[in-house]
Each structure stands twice: as C-alpha cells, then as structure tokens.
Amino acid sequence: MEIVISTTSDPYGFVWKKIYKWMAVDFIPFEEGWKHFISFGDLVKSKRLAKTRHVIWLATTWSIWRTRNNIVFRGYVFNLDALIDQIIFISWFWFIGRLRVNTSFVFSDWCNDPLVCIDNI
Question: At the top level of its lineage, which domain of life is listed (predicted)?
Fold first, then answer.
C-alpha cells in the first residue's frame, strides 16, 4: 500500500495543513508517505514514549482513509471540520489507550496543545 500525502489544494491537503496548525507547528510538505511519517515523529521531543510519537499521524491517515472510503462507497459528502474533529478525538483516544497510565491531562488539554501532552508524560 502506498501512502500518498497530499500537499496540494485538494481537501486532504487542507486536512494536513489544519492538523499542523492545530499542533502549532509549521506545515512540512512531503510527497513520500514514509518521509512525512518520520518528520512527523520528529515533532515529538519526548524519547521516553516512542509508542505515542506517531499517534496523531496515524489517526489522521486512518481518518482520511475512512473518509475516502465513505465518500466512494457510501456516498458521503466531504466535511473538513467534521474530519478534523474526528482526528482530534481519535488521536486522543489512541493516545490515552497507548499510555495505559493515568494522566492529569484531559481532552480539552489535548484539543489546545497535543504536543505538550505528549512531551510532558
């Protein structure tokens, strides 16, 4: 399976730009999925929690995949804001699931600054 990271003006390119904006980092366009994956993981400073480094990238890619399938096979209409909300929620859910520890961070903290949550565990 080839992962295509769109950096053009199509709807999925806008998804990545909004995710980077939510994370308060500069958008880094890459054509090759594996390079994008690696650079995305480098945004996380904490080396202790390697298993959480790519949770936002994985949630974004998975959500885009599901959205594309829903559009093609179920006739859904693309909704950028709903997709971004879904990515934020799924990444939080996966983040908490991967930690398997109690954290003082709550969902609103994640919504405001996910990198702080990841880097301070």
Answer: Eukaryota
